[in-house]
Design brief:
Number of helices: 4
Number of strands: 10
Number of domains: 1
Structural class: alpha+beta
Radius of gyration: 20 Å
Helix content: 10-25%
CATH class: Mainly Alpha
Mean pLDDT: 84
Order of helices and strands: HEEEEHHHEEEEEE
CATH topology: Cytochrome p450
CATH superfamily: Cytochrome P450
Distance between the termini: 21 Å
Largest sheet: 2 strands, antiparallel
CATH architecture: Orthogonal Bundle
Shape: elongated
Length: about 150
């Protein structure tokens, strides 16, 4: 589950906001960012780098992180969904557990399938990418009561 969750967070990573507090920052190109300006790091480019994630870095692979046994909440230099260093999201452990609980409930209560055989393309809005919900069908599972116990049936 952690491998699939981490891969989902890698593929659908957004941007990391950062406010510049030093007087200014100068890039190697000579461009300067003044103090107080908001800067956004586009994590998607790092997470889709073939040098970091292999030749198929742009493809979703639920088993990509299985061998490393690295949980989705772990801070790594090439996995920046929750930030890095002392500024890493302190709520990442809670967030990952909440996602797992929500996924558990979805799988327990619904039969989930997609329409057709084609790939569902994400929705891209500026630097952000979101999963597309069109073409996905959620069918509520039937509840069967037997001997006083409820049982969800697919």
């Amino acid at each position: 589950l952690d491998s699939m969750l981490k891969e989902t967070l890698r593929v659908y990573a957004g941007v990391l906001p950062h406010k510049l507090i030093s007087p200014y920052y100068t890039f190697s190109s000579g461009h300067q960012v003044p103090k107080g300006r908001n800067v956004y790091i586009r994590v998607h480019d790092i997470h889709n780098d073939d040098n970091l994630y292999g030749q198929n870095s742009k493809e979703f692979d639920a088993f990509r992180h299985l061998k490393s046994k690295s949980p989705a909440s772990r801070i790594e230099k090439n996995f920046l969904t929750f930030g890095n260093g002392k500024h890493a999201c302190p709520g990442r452990f809670f967030a990952v557990n909440e996602i797992k609980v929500a996924l558990h409930h979805l799988l327990l209560k619904y039969n989930i399938r997609k329409v057709g055989d084609g790939k569902i393309k994400p929705i891209i809005m500026g630097p952000m990418m979101f999963p597309n919900q069109e073409g996905i069908i959620f069918e509520k599972k039937k509840t069967i009561v037997k001997d006083g116990y409820k049982n969800e049936q697919g």
